[in-house]
């Protein structure tokens, strides 16, 4: 059965505004982040998209975003969490090395880029295999979404070089254990 995955990043948080590294640590949605999630929810309703299954990272910012988008019951999944940045968590983003990070954070108790990619790809594949319906919402994080895209870039004609802004929506088709990115909805929610 063909299924559709809508994978999205959470709304803007306090740490996003303060330019703090935010992986496994957490901070609340800002007023703008709440509005971004509400706009994303409105987009889904206007497109007639009704979710049959919903999943969120265990981080509060992702759960709160999902709850603003849909009222259906959802499952929290640790495999959808953001990159673990080790002792860089909650520090200034100015301390980050240049991209790509690769295995930089491992020496600081964090996660390797390929470990993150595999964790998120395996988690989402498992979700899709067990999802009962055919329209699945997954709310996760910027680097997690980007790494999932990279895991499946060989099946897609879409190249997304731009930053995945808060509440960016990635639409994937899923069939025969394969994901294909078919659309990137990277609205400028700040203007809503």
From TrEMBL:
InterPro entries membership: His_Pase_superF_clade-1, His_PPase_superfam, PG/BPGM_mutase_AS, PGM_Phosphatase
Listed EC numbers: 5.4.2.12
Residues annotated as transmembrane: none
Keywords: Isomerase
SMART domains: PGAM (SM00855)
Molecular function terms from GO: phosphoglycerate mutase activity
Xref: PANTHER family: BROAD-SPECIFICITY PHOSPHATASE YOR283W-RELATED, HISTIDINE PHOSPHATASE FAMILY PROTEIN
Protein name, as recorded: Phosphoglycerate mutase
Species for this entry: Breznakia pachnodae
């Amino acid at each position: 059965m063909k299924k559709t995955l809508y994978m999205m990043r959470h709304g803007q948080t306090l740490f996003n505004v303060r330019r703090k590294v935010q992986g496994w640590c957490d901070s609340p949605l800002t007023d703008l982040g709440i509005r971004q999630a509400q706009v994303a929810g409105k987009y889904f309703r206007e497109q007639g998209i009704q979710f049959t299954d919903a999943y969120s990272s265990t981080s509060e910012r992702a759960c709160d975003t999902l709850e603003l988008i849909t009222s259906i019951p959802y499952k929290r999944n640790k495999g959808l969490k953001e990159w673990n940045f080790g002792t860089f968590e909650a520090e200034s983003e100015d301390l980050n090395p240049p991209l790509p990070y690769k295995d930089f954070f491992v020496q600081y108790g964090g996660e390797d880029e390929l470990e993150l990619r595999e964790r998120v790809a395996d988690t989402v594949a498992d979700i899709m295999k067990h999802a009962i319906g055919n329209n699945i919402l997954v709310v996760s994080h910027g680097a997690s979404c980007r790494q999932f895209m990279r895991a499946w870039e060989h099946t897609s004609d879409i190249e997304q070089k731009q930053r995945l802004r808060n509440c960016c929506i990635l639409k994937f088709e899923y069939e025969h254990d394969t994901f294909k990115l078919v659309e990137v909805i990277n609205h400028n929610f700040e203007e809503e």
